[in-house]
Write a structure and sequence with these properties.
elongated, mainly alpha
Length: 144
């Protein structure tokens, strides 16, 4: 610095730590399974269940209204269910596109070690973070 003060920079190096390989591997397993892959599976199952429940409710609603309304009035609610289904599928696909690749690369880093992480994961890490941020922004727009 120009004013003569000192700046201290602290960093953590895992190479000197005896259990660093184990710590790295555990961290990558946790990251890839619990934070990336498991949410993809859970969201897929929940979205499928929600879409199924929506279509079941629509069928019940149509049966109840079948005799009380003319046939031309039953088209509107069906279109709303289809529109909602498309929205849910788009949100699911965007989430999987953004979260699944980092999960797979994290899993491969846990299995193959630090060298794979440094050679393959690090170069595309910023791009994957941008995909996640873009997914969040697009979801905000879709929900509004």
């Amino acid at each position: 610095r120009r004013d003569g003060s000192c700046v201290y920079l602290y960093s953590i190096e895992f190479e000197d730590f005896k259990g660093s390989d184990l710590l790295f591997s555990l961290n990558m397993w946790f990251y890839s399974f619990l934070l990336k892959l498991l949410p993809c599976v859970v969201l897929t199952v929940f979205t499928g269940s929600l879409i199924h429940a929506m279509y079941q409710a629509e069928k019940k609603s149509l049966r109840l209204r079948k005799n009380s309304l003319p046939q031309s009035h039953t088209v509107g609610p069906k279109r709303n269910v289809d529109r909602t289904t498309r929205l849910l599928v788009v949100i699911l696909v965007l989430f999987i596109i953004a979260e699944f690749p980092p999960g797979i690369l994290g899993l491969l880093s846990a299995v193959l070690g630090k060298q794979f992480f440094l050679d393959c994961y690090n170069p595309v890490g910023e791009m994957m973070d941008m995909m996640t941020l873009t997914n969040s922004s697009v979801n905000f727009i879709l929900y509004c």
